Amino acid sequence: MAAGHGQQAETGKAGGGDPVCMRIWGGLGNQMFQYAAGHALAKRLGVELLVDPLDLDYAHAAFGLDLFGLSPRIWQPDTGSLKARLLGALGRGEGKKRQKLWPGPSYFQKDFCHGDEVFSLTAGTYLAGYFQSEQFFADCRDEVRSLFSLDHVAATIDPARLALADAPTSVSLHVRRGDYAANAKTTATHGLLGAEHYMRAAGLMAQLVPDATWLVFSDDIAAADELTRDLPRRTLVEGQSREQDLHLMSRCAHHVIANSSFSWWGAWLGRNPDRHVIAPRKWFARDELRRVYVDELFPSGWILV
């Protein structure tokens, strides 16, 4: 069965082995990386993919796979078992500790965007991590693009905006704020890209795409307005849902992304085979970059500034 709107992704069951299970958590972009990696692993092993969505407390982290019409089977741990009762008594039967109820082996990704061990995992494994690299699903790239199609959303978007995005010189520019700005701990981890970064990226894109028309996306449109007010032919995209934003981003010809998995996907799902993508080299704040390897996050051909 083809994976599409309102359908369950078919991961293949030719091997007849035990399913693999992927922990799903974080914002929409994070969830997409996790699901893509899990889908690819299940397909390679010929088994079913289950998902284990953690409790998602933040508005930006609402369970998102249903936006794509995906309905993977959710793992339901056996809460009546002796092990479950013991863990519950110890306060370990909920949240991230729930994986202790998984009957098979577990794999926890050590690195942000790297993990050769994934390719030697066996059926029946529980996975948790970020998996933020296309290396984990490069062998089924076209399937992943199909899984994350939002073509059904186009009918809900202003036709004038669609026309802007479909122009051959359109550039999506994403400004990420939200908890990056509101939470001091999150700011210390991710940092905030300022006007200097965006003007440098925009200047480079203007050289690559003369007469660029800019579509500016953000979770803080006032901040995005301030950061991009000097751009010519600029449209601030307001009042849309996250799925509408993601679809409109993907229709743009070129992309300037933030240090955000959301706009990473907006660029990666882009339809223009000759698209230019400019991404921030400083994906994290300085201190975080000293300990986190990020090189494999960026697909070949993306420009880092």
From TrEMBL:
GO terms for biological process: carbohydrate metabolic process. InterPro entries: Glyco_trans_11. The keyword Glycosyltransferase applies. Keywords: Glycosyltransferase, Transferase. GO terms for cellular component: membrane. It comes from the Bacteria. GO terms for molecular function: galactoside 2-alpha-L-fucosyltransferase activity. PANTHER family: GALACTOSIDE 2-L-FUCOSYLTRANSFERASE, L-FUCOSYLTRANSFERASE. This is Glycosyl transferase family 11. It comes from Stappia indica. The lineage of its organism: Bacteria, Pseudomonadati, Pseudomonadota, Alphaproteobacteria, Hyphomicrobiales.
